[in-house]
Specification:
The chain contains six helices and six strands, in the order H-H-E-E-H-E-E-H-H-E-E-H. The N and C termini lie far apart (48 Å). Strands 1-2-3-4-6-5 form a six-stranded mixed beta sheet, with helices on both faces. Strand 3 (80-88) and strand 4 (95-102) form a beta hairpin. It has helices spanning 2-20, 33-44, 65-71, 105-126, 130-137, 157-166, and strands at 46-47, 58-62, 80-88, 95-102, 140-144, 147-153.
């Protein structure tokens, strides 16, 4: 009787272990986009407060309201869980980032189209200066499930892309 009880318990434990090793549903991880942006801001010395910024900091500001609609027509109408839109206070500095978690993958695809339109418009002359248009031409829109990002950074393009993609690895 003891042998059967031990074998039954061992089978239950094995079943529990195997159930814990099941595959993870893709896109189920939650990413805190505010924390991600704050990490970037600290690493690259982006500041939002001119009073506390230090020499060499890039002054960034949130893009909201009418300015958001001007830069990204229709983005405010896309259903999002999280939305972070930051741009430098000086327009000649290319360092604009958008990070969004949308309600669905269809919403994320809509957001990606809007973000790509902004990048294309800036690269095709909207950025005015040749160096700025060149930097915008390297901008990337990345979608991972319901998450989408637009990264346009003259100085840190590849590093920010890699950091965003690493959130989902």
């Amino acid at each position: 009787m003891k042998k059967w009880l031990v074998m039954a318990l061992a089978a239950c434990m094995l079943t529990g272990l195997l159930a814990g090793c099941g595959s993870k549903e893709e896109g189920s991880a939650q990413v805190d986009l505010s924390a991600f942006y704050e990490t970037l801001a600290e690493e690259y010395h982006w500041s939002e407060d001119p009073q506390t910024s230090q020499e060499g900091d890039l002054l960034m500001s949130s893009v909201e309201g009418e300015l958001l609609e001007s830069y990204y027509p229709g983005l405010a109408d896309v259903a999002t869980e999280q939305l972070i839109v930051k741009a430098p206070m000086m327009s000649s500095v290319v360092n604009e980032v958008v990070f969004a978690q949308c309600k669905s993958e269809d919403d994320a695809a809509s957001a990606a189209e809007i973000l790509q339109s902004r990048a294309d418009a800036q690269a095709e002359g909207g950025a005015w200066y040749p160096e700025s248009m060149e930097a915008w031409g390297k901008a990337k829109v990345i979608q991972n499930g319901t998450y989408v990002a637009m990264i346009a950074s003259a100085e840190h393009q590849t590093e920010i892309e890699d950091a965003f993609n690493a959130l989902f690895a």
